Amino acid sequence: MFLRLRQLCLVAQDLEPVVDDLAAVLGIEVGYRDPVVGRYGLHNAVLPIGNSFLEVVSPLRENTTAARYLQRRQGNGGYMVILDTDALPRWRDRMASLGVRIAAATAHGDYQGLQLHPRDTGGALLEINSTIGGASLDGPYGPAGPHWRHAVRTQRVQAVASAELQSDDPGRLAARWAEVLQRPVAASGDTWRIRLDNALLRFVHAADERGEGLCGIDIRTVRPHEVLEQAQRRGLATTAGSVTLGGVRFYLDDN
């Protein structure tokens, strides 16, 4: 049974400016726009990074979950952490045993997903999903559409390595996610880590007043100087090893 970090979702007040920044700075492309998200009052874009995915969603109307989240977290930022598995019924049973509510159960075609209620997990919206035939990382993955491989561009960035979640009590949050996901948590100083099969979840103290949420993404980068140059040309915030896109800090891992 595998459990992999497969997709990270950002939420934006306006979709296209954030998508344009991601594409221009990271050198990636939109691979899919999912019409199914319209039922939730959203539109979206999915951009592959290697065999993982960045998604950006934006509300089409007021009083959607995403619109309320934008207001609560004071603007654009991280929204969802999405894992995939080959044993979704097992995870459904585990959530029931822990009393973790399913906020939304989705199913279309060969894809099924469980969005967990954020009040029962904390941190961010957490989803576990499964696609028939998707055991290989290069195989089918429902949320990315049928032709996602054609949009893969790896000249600057190659993979998602970690997701970073901030909290006023990151140790407590990490312990809860470790319980939900049945993975051990390791502490090092003020940082807690949970290892998935292909990536890390990292829990840190909140560095701003935006509350708990997905605040950072580690990206394996082959041309970090190009990423930084493109971000600076667009007037985006940068440090020596990171750029801020859509309210999320992208750490450039070139090791």
Strand order of the largest sheet: 9-10-11-8-12-15-14-13
Query: How many beta-strand segments?
Result: 15
Average pLDDT confidence is: 96
Cα end-to-end separation: 29 Å
Globular, elongated, flat, extended or rod-shaped: what is the shape?
Answer: globular
Range of strand content: 35-45%
Helicity range: 10-25%
Integer-rounded radius of gyration: 17 Å
**Main β sheet profile:** 8 strands, mixed
Describe this structure in words.
With 255 residues, the chain is an alpha+beta fold. The protein contains six helices and 15 strands. It has helices at residues 15-26, 65-72, 88-98, 118-121, 170-181, 224-233; strands at residues 3-11, 42-49, 52-59, 77-85, 102-108, 111-116, 125-131, 157-167, 185-188, 191-195, 200-205, 213-221, 238-239, 242-245, 248-253. The strands form two sheets. An eight-stranded mixed sheet has the order 9-10-11-8-12-15-14-13, with helices on one face. Helix 1 (15-26) runs antiparallel to helix 6. The radius of gyration is 17 Å and the shape is globular. The model has no long low-confidence stretch (mean pLDDT 96).
